[in-house]
Amino acid sequence: YPRYDGAWGDLSCSGWQVCACETVASTETPAPTPTEYGKVYWTSGADRESYVWVSEMSQFEARSSVLVDTTGYAQGVVVSSNTSTVYFTDNVGKSVWRVDDDGYDLVQLVDESAAGGAGEPLGIDLWEHAGKLYWADEGGEVRSSTLDGTDPTTVASTLQSPTDVAVDKGK
Fold it and tell me: Please, is 82 exposed, middle or buried when counting C-beta atoms within 10 Å of its C-beta (0-12, 13-18, 19+)?
């Protein structure tokens, strides 16, 4: 997929693809600065049209753009601090996905329908040191897999509709 920089303009997306956004040039651009505040990722949408967003923040501005346009319903999102890989859940497609922080290399890691999951994955967390992803499954489970999606297992079951998960990584 082509990579488009910028955050302003018309969305032209459909299906599981990287979204193209029209770039609008600023008349005055501030001088570059070494002060970078990082990126913030979030999900939004409804009715089988949702997005994984990214905001790049600096001393001068925050620009938001669509990282991934989904046909399902993106719910939870977490970012690897080691690799900048973005992991997210799709509760309509009952799946866990990964994408590079530049929008390339979108990969379905776990298909919950095929992997024995109870319902729809929602919140997600990762424990990089252990090489594990964890997600809340609305069907009453907390599930995990390796970072590449192999070995999906149930960590806890018969729960009351969990919607999010956080892993205590210890000290």
Answer: exposed
Contact indicator for 131, 147 with CB cutoff of 8 Å: yes
The model scores a pTM over 0.85:
no
Q: What is the pLDDT of residues 100-112, one digit of tens each?
A: 988 889 999 999 8
Q: What six digits make up the tokens of 146? A: 């390796």
- Bridge partners, 126 (sequence order): 133
Q: Can you tell me the distance from the alpha carbon of 122 to that of 93, in angstroms, rounded to the nearest whole number?
A: 11
Q: Which residue has the tokens 């600023």?
A: 26
Beta pairing class for 49-58 and 86-90: unpaired
- Pairwise CA distance, residues 85 & 105, whole Å: 10
DSSP helix/strand/coil, 112: helix
Count of Cβ atoms closer than 10 Å to residue 107 Cβ: 12
